[in-house]
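Reviewer 2 asked us to include a model.

Predict the structure of this chain.
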Amino acid sequence: MTIKTIIIAALTLTLTGCPIYHISQSPRSQPLSAPEILQTNGLFIHDYTKITFPETIDEFHRTNVAKYDTAAANISVGYNEASPNCPITATIYVFPRPPMNYIGAAPEVVASIENQILQNVFSATKNDIVHAHSNAKLIAENQLAFGEKKAWVAKYSDGPAITIAKVLIYDLDWIVKYRYTFPATCEPQAQQAVGKLEEGLRLY
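Predicted model (structure tokens):
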């Protein structure tokens, strides 16, 4: 990054409170024309965040790991819980947030930028669900707090199934997104199982 870029970044961010200094660590990469399967066996570790994805978590079994860019920075990991009464399909996405350099930025400025990024990703996620499932109807939407992390959650009804999408900022460089689909008839059981999956991933 050039001195000119640093100066511009510093001038565009208001300096109040305890400043935050951070240079984006997102790798340079190019999107792939189609997803590429990376790994199906053994412990998978995302190279950049060091988030780990075991083969099994509680009753969930990992089904695939795919990358969407040349650097394998943008990935998805699929898990299935194959209970005959309540089958659950889960996909966890990890991908870089838009590269942002904070040079002496006020915490409230960073929080405002993060909130806008989260809104944009959340809106795109909801559009993806409706595009893929034309009968999907939004039945709930809310924000949740997990310690210092904040997540936006949307719940859709799609005939006999329910799809839940959750988006959160993992840190200053990365976003994590969850998608779950399960039968509406076993929602309490599914919500409990999903909680165990998220607990096992330790992402917040």
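Residues 1-16 have pLDDT under 50 and may be disordered. The two ends are 31 Å apart (CA to CA). We have added this to the supplementary material.
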